[in-house]
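Can anyone check this?
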Amino acid sequence: MSDRPPEVVGAIRLGRKTLDALAYAVLLAAAVAGASAFFELSGEGTLFRTKYVLFWVGFALLAYASFQLRPDSPSKMESKGEFVTSGDDRQKKASGSVGARSSTRLERLAAWLPPMRWVDVNENDRFSTHTKQFLAAVLMLATSIAMEFVFGITSPGTV
C-alpha cells in the first residue's frame, strides 16, 4: 500500500501511460522515417521524398486511427445492453475478456527499449493501440511539416 495521496498516484499513473504512448509513437515515426530516409539517401542523397512519405503515411494512419477510435453508435450500445466509454474498453472486449488485451510486436519493442525498459507500466493500464497510432500519426505529420518549414527541405534543384 502506498503512502501517497490518490491524486499523486493518479498523476504518476497518467505520466507512465503518456510516456508509454510517446515511446510507441516515436518508435513508429522513427521506423517510417528511417526506412524512407535509408532508401532515399542511398539513391538520391536528399530527404525530399521522405518528407512526403511521412506526410502521406501520417495522413493515412491518422484516418485509420481516427476511424478505430470512434465511439459505437447508441443503437449498437442499446442492443448490446452495455455502455462503452472509450476505445480501451472496446479493444478489451474484442479480445474476449476484460483486461485480456494482447500487445502488438511494436508495443512489445517499445516496452523493451529505454526509457520504457526502466518504467513499470501495468499491462492493463495503457492507452489503446489506436490511441498510440493516432499520436504517431500526429508526430509524423509534425515531422513532415518541420522538415518543410524549419529545415527547408525542398525539391532537389530548388533553393
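Reply from J.R.: I decoded it. Confidence is low (pLDDT under 50) at residues 94-100.
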